[in-house]
Specification:
The chain has about 140 residues and is α+β, with helices and mostly antiparallel strands. The protein has a single domain, classed as Hotdog Thioesterase (Thiol Ester Dehydrase, Chain A, Roll), CATH 3.10.129.10. It has two helices and six strands, in the order H-E-E-H-E-E-E-E. The longest helix has 17 residues.
Length: about 140
């Protein structure tokens, strides 16, 4: 699927406000991109872990969303992140998420963030809950 396809869900307003962009969305896989800006830096001068967490949550959750039908819905139940290397202002980050196993009510996803040169920045894995019916506020 093309990321311009109307059937692809939009990423969250939070992710958009952080400059995170959807670059790939297909069955069981999702990739997002962000360039590290001044606003993403922590007091130590490197990318804040919240940027990494949001990128991984968006990519892993997006991978699962690519597998659910229009009546189902999902949400992150747990997300573990390992911060491997720092990210610096001006670097481009790519988060890739994959569905490892999907059941009727739970899914397990994994992914990683790398920079444009392929250096591993962070890894993540998590569990998502799946509802067979969308919550009323989303209908």
């Amino acid at each position: 699927m093309s990321v311009n396809d109307k059937s692809i869900p939009k990423i969250s307003v939070l992710a958009e406000s952080m400059g995170i962009k959807l670059i790939n969305f297909q069955e069981g896989k999702c990739s997002v991109y962000a360039k590290i800006l001044d606003i993403h830096l922590n007091t130590g001068g490197v990318a804040h872990g919240g940027l990494h967490a949001t990128m991984l949550d968006t990519a892993l959750g997006g991978a699962l969303v690519s597998t659910i039908n229009k009546d189902e819905w999902c949400a992150t139940a747990q997300l573990d992140i390992s911060y491997i290397e720092p990210g610096y202002e001006g670097e481009e980050l790519f988060a890739n998420g994959f569905v490892i196993r999907r059941g009727k009510t739970l899914a397990h996803c994994e992914g990683q963030i790398s920079d444009s040169e392929g250096k591993l920045i962070a890894t993540g894995k998590g569990t998502w809950i799946i509802w067979q019916i969308k919550p009323k506020n989303l209908l």
